[in-house]
Write a structure and sequence with these properties.
Length: about 100
């Protein structure tokens, strides 16, 4: 059995390597899925079973379709933007994916 501190150290090491790997990422369309796959690796998740990429959702307006960059059902919604884009916009977009009822 792995000691809790050893587990935490391994997680910290993986998270640090992940942050260095993506420190200069700047292009959402070209890097989003790799980012989410590697994020799964930090936590030891199998991305094939854990995340849906580009899940379709109806826009708040009721017309048109948006896509969630990464969706971990019951756990996490990932909405990405390219470097330099307004993250408040990403937050508002992500909130629009959550059912209102």
């Amino acid at each position: 059995m792995i000691h809790p501190q050893e587990q935490q150290d391994q997680l910290n090491d993986r998270a640090e390597a992940f942050s260095k790997e993506f420190a200069n990422a700047s292009y959402e369309m070209g890097q989003a899925q790799n980012f989410v796959r590697e994020l799964c690796g930090v936590y030891g998740l199998n991305y094939l079973r854990s995340v849906d990429f580009e899940r379709r959702v109806v826009k708040d307006s009721g017309t048109g379709i948006n896509r969630i960059d990464g969706f971990f059902p019951g756990l996490l919604l990932v909405e990405m933007k390219s470097k330099g884009k307004d993250l408040a916009e990403a937050y508002e977009q992500a909130k629009g994916y959550i059912p209102k009822n």
